[in-house]
Automatic annotation (TrEMBL), chains A, B:
GO terms for molecular function: histidine-tRNA ligase activity; sequence-specific mRNA binding. This is histidine--tRNA ligase. Keywords: Ligase. Its EC number is 6.1.1.21. One of its GO terms (biological process) is mitochondrial translation. SUPFAM superfamilies: Class II aaRS and biotin synthetases. It comes from the Eukaryota. Belongs to the class-II aminoacyl-tRNA synthetase family. The keyword Transmembrane does not apply. L-histidine binds at D78, L79, T80, R105, Q121, D125, R297, Y301, Y302. It holds the Pfam family tRNA-synt_His.
């Protein structure tokens, strides 16, 4: 006999769990719709080559389909790369789309914390060229509204950062360009690893002692500052770096390659944009924002805003993640279609792990008081269904009055209708 | 550069298509709910061994996952076998459940007719012991209501048969037991193949000339009879066969193995049950039913009622399929859990192929009459979103009044709000 279980890292959801999940999805979707999102659907699997080189060090978690003579495919790892493929294929320059669907990762599973190998993501993305940070601000407003809508009894923080700032700081710390992405993967482990473990990993990856000490001072140590203090601090860093560059340049000290004059244009733009973003978030009345310079996220494709939302005091990891990915389309498309995109993903199964369960309620139980009266009951059911109400009866050989009443009570029926040989009685259960 | 397409037999659905699909699913789900269905969710893939030997000659269409060191899995082929696995695992004896989810078959694809390799099924099943044909009648009532709910401009027929009747007729036609299932697969091709092609296939599969001629007379030729005439005819066949058995028995003519006395108990019960079912369908006011003795369906697991619904004059195949599968649980479970089940599956993508497309409509477009006024517009948006309305603005650098009006008209906004330097104008677009 076969073993009756679900594959590792996957679960069945019983009716109560499924209804709870539906409620979470309904809430998210209603906010997606109020921002004029339109749904699209992409397949569960993609050509494998489309998923290559998009997920940094996590690519090993992709599920492959067996080669059965045909396309070489893999299950989707997220909804962002398939969406970019969709944009490119259809040459779409402007869209606000959502997709709520399952994604697959061969990760270390845990049901309790909502970490599964198959899980639901609810994605919203705004694509198309726009004034700086306007769409980014709307995305953060949506994340804030969604977290409020769940009405969970936990405080939450929406952590933001900007890839241009992070890259700028790594430059200032003299991290060579080819090590910046892998350094980000390590920095992303703040909170999971101790500072010592992070430093060791950075050294192992080939960063110099001086770079690591710079990272500690500039990136890992800004927890107790307000966002405006952090902005001022970043401006100060840029000013100092420029001054240092000018001085060493005028003293003709620049000769080794890693001491070349830093191009901090993007860094500066990032800081200005985040300052503007904070102003827009004020207009949008978005609270619970925290500019966190150590927020990195593992994915390769982010280019600007990075965002991650967490509930305080619970162990489910981030419940929302996202950011700006302006170059993903261009990286897929040979016809250099470039569509600036910013979006986010709600980890529905992680919310689910925190969510109070929902019990179904029904309308009418049709029972029999005395005698089988099956055809009478069928006739009554028929009329109730025609009204659009939800109704059910016992279809077993024997009908016991009390057993039916117990069943109707236990299953939250609001009305019971009972046929008898001579009567039809009706009343609230 | 990679090829930007979806894998063979899969498609993207654009917003209009996705909204149309959602509407179809919403209609089906509302009828599932009115019959007190509860949702469950099972994983997209199952342990491969669970799917083995359930799908007759179609098992070759199962998609396998690559062995990446872990469970050996395959994508689900339908929602029925996973559901039976769920029943057994949780030792559930009674449930009315629905599941609306994607299934996967490496079949010959065609988008136009809704035949895809990944497609959505909407399943409803009633499980648990019950009086004969009561749940079967409810299932047919649901199928009828769903087909009515789609309001499509095509006539439809709900074809029914009973596996016990089909097996009985094959017995009467002297088809050996080990060829009955494969004979069913061939008979199931009525409408796709000519009678001659069917006869040839049956002969090739090893049936005798006499069996094939019997099948033609008794199974393939009952199109122009009413259901009651067919029932009477079946009763006549049973009577005659019994008489023939009695006669040959009293004449001691039974000696070769294929001439043994036929056990027609199940056949007779099938005929009586279908007669009862037709009476219940009268009470439930279900029309468009046609008892079709050639309806077989390829799947191994059916034990009683078989059902298939088709629209007349369109080429999408059957849009609903289902039946009774009383032994599927027992075939999975080593602890001989047996749960009688009857259910059906709506081929959502095939309905989709026939369905009129739906266009999204929005509430408020926030524009600028003169000047950028971005922060004013953001403030207005903020207040509109807070009301739960759907709103959007232009976020490009230039704003041209007429361009905004055109956009709002084209995208079915119901209200436009425009800011100016000195005014806020408001009106229906």
């Amino acid at each position: 006999m076969v073993s009756l279980r679900t594959p590792k890292g996957t679960v069945d959801l019983n009716p109560q769990q499924s209804l709870t999940l539906e409620e979470i999805v309904r809430k998210v979707k209603s906010i997606f719709e109020s921002h004029n999102g339109v749904p699209i659907n992409t397949p569960t699997f993609e050509l494998r080559e489309i998923l290559m080189n998009k997920y940094g060090e996590d690519a090993k978690l992709i599920y492959n389909l067996e080669d059965q003579g045909g396309d070489i495919c893999s299950l989707r790892y997220d909804l962002t790369v398939p969406f970019s493929r969709y944009l490119c294929m259809n040459r779409i320059q402007k869209i606000r789309r959502y997709q709520i669907a399952n994604v697959f990762r061969r990760d270390n599973p845990s049901f309790k914390t909502g970490r599964l190998r198959e899980f639901i993501q609810a994605d919203f993305d705004i694509c198309g060229s726009a004034l700086p940070m306007v769409n980014d601000a709307e995305i953060l407003r949506m994340i804030y509204d969604i977290l409020i809508a769940f009405s969970l009894p936990y405080a939450f923080t929406i952590k933001i950062n900007d890839k241009r700032i992070l890259t700028g700081l790594l430059k200032v710390c003299k991290v060579p360009e080819d090590l910046q992405q892998t350094a980000c993967s390590t920095i992303d482990k703040v909170g999971k690893l101790t500072t010592e473990e992070i430093n060791n990993e950075l050294i192992t990856k080939g960063l110099s002692e001086r770079s690591v000490s710079g990272i500690n001072r500039l990136i890992l140590n800004n927890e107790n500052k307000t966002d405006l203090e952090t902005i001022l601090n970043l401006k100060e860093i840029i000013k100092t770096s420029k001054l240092a560059d000018t001085m060493s340049s005028s003293l003709s000290l620049k000769n080794s390659s890693d001491e070349s004059i830093l191009d901090l244009t993007e860094f500066e733009k990032g800081v200005d944009d985040v300052e503007m973003l904070l102003k827009y978030l004020d207009i949008y009345k978005v609270k619970n924002i925290k500019l966190d310079l150590s927020l990195a996220r593992g994915l390769d494709y982010y280019t600007g805003l990075i965002v991650e939302a967490v509930y305080e005091g619970v162990d489910v990891g981030s419940v929302v993640g996202g950011g700006r990915y302006d170059n993903l389309c261009a990286s897929l498309s040979s016809n250099t279609l470039n569509v600036p995109c910013v979006g986010f993903s709600v980890g529905v199964m992680r919310i689910f792990a925190l969510y109070p369960p929902i019990t179904p309620e029904w309308d009418v139980f049709v029972g029999s008081g005395y005698g089988l009266n099956l055809e009478d009951r069928m006739d009554i059911l028929n009329r109730i269904w025609a009204l659009g109400l939800r109704a059910e009866t016992f279809t077993s050989k024997r009908v016991n009055y009390m057993e039916q009443v117990e069943y109707a009570k236990k299953n939250n029926f609001s009305v019971g209708v009972f046929t008898g040989d001579n009567e039809i009685s009706k009343g609230s259960v």
